[in-house]
Structures are given as C-alpha cells and as structure tokens.
Amino acid sequence: MALRLGFDIDGVLADFRAAFEAIARGGASIDTSPDPEDDEATEPLASREVRRVWSTVQRTSNWWTCLAAYEPAQIARLYSLSRGLRWEVVFMTRRPESSGDPVQFQTQWWLESHGFYLPAVVTVPGSRGDLANALRLDMVVDDQLHNCVDVVSGSPAKAILLLRDSGARALRDHAMSRGIGVVSTLREALDVLERAQHVLTERRGRLNRLIDWFQSGPDDSLPLKPRSPRPEPQE
User: Fold this and answer.
1) 120, 123, 138, 162 — which has fewest CB within 10 A?
2) C-alpha distances in angstroms, 197 versus 91, 121, 135?
3) Could you give the CA distance from residue 127 to residue 172 in angstroms, rounded to a whole number?
4) Do 92 and 200 share a domain, yes or no?
5) Which domain holds residue 154?
6) In terms of domains, do 116 and 21 share one?
C-alpha cells in the first residue's frame, strides 16, 4: 500500500514568514534570511501594515517563486521517496494571487526548481479536512494546528504538525493530546513517513507477497528526472 500524502507549502517547505517580514521592514527586495537578533522581526504587525504588505505581494510579479526553502535538500528527498515508494503527493496552499503567472504555476515552478518534478498543486481556500477527505489522503503535514485539527476531525487522515518553534511546548502538548504528531523539521517528518510506510508494508504479510505475482519483471519505470529522455521500450 503506497501512501497518499498532503503537504502544506508555506511554513513547511517555503519560508513565507521571512519574505513577508522583509517587505514589512521596507526592503526593496525579498530577503529570506532572517536575522535572529532583529527584534522587529518578531513584533506583530498592525492590520494596516499587513494590508500594505499584501498589496505589495499582489503587485509583485511572480512573488511566490522568490521564497527561500527551509530545507532544500529535503524537498528533493521527498521527490525521491515518492518515486521509490510510489507515494502520491499533493501540495496544498491557500496562497492569494500575485501579479504574473497563476499561483498554481508559480508554486509548481518553485517546487521543480527545488527538485520535486511534476508536482500536483491544489490551490483551495477551504477546509483542509474536506480536501483530505476528497483526495483520500492518508497523512497531511501542516504548520498550522487548526489545519491539523481540521484534518483529523473532518477525514480519516492523520496529521503531522511541523512546529519549528522549539519553545512552543503548550502548542506541542495540545496537538499531541488531539492525536496529532509533532515534528520540528521537514527531515523529521519524512523520517516518520518512511517508518509509516515500512509498518504498513510489514503488516500486509501475504498480501504483500501476492503483489509480487503481478510484477512486470525488468524495471520499466520512467526516468527519475522527467525532463530526461525517455528510455526505449523493451520488447
């Protein structure tokens, strides 16, 4: 049984917060390397300031392609795992429009530039639980607790909260009390998913061996990188 997985983008893969705060501080360009000693980065923004930043985002051509990745190597690793373990991966986002290409294409372009080829991106502003249920997902990785609660409440899917703030113990405890797994990095989340795949495979027993009867023999899979030339079919 291959896993069907959902991944949020901002806060899980992309460092949206640093880019957003760079605009709030008046930077002409997007500086996605936050300064830990910059106190202004942690101060809450007033509503008027938030509206100004979003207005800038909407006017900036292809703004969503400029965000830095938290863990670039892990995005490429996710692609390799999805190919090797036959995972079906869907990326979910509520990103609003910006100037330039559609948000979906910007997000796909960004994912490919970090090593995840031909990504399936769904831009839906509604309930994550409804989406997980409609897509029949097994697990969802998100950085917002309310999205994780929505997933476990509105679908059979499990949720993993990616909580990068190591000091948010109350949030961690609350999530775990709801049956939501908590990790601090994307790497850790992928480790958990690999173990979950192993457990599912081991529990299948004879069914797992039964599938071997339907193997096609030689490896006839497509190239790891879809932009590579496709191999000639074997007779």
Assistant:
1) 120
2) 19, 23, 19
3) 22
4) yes
5) 4-12+69-212
6) no
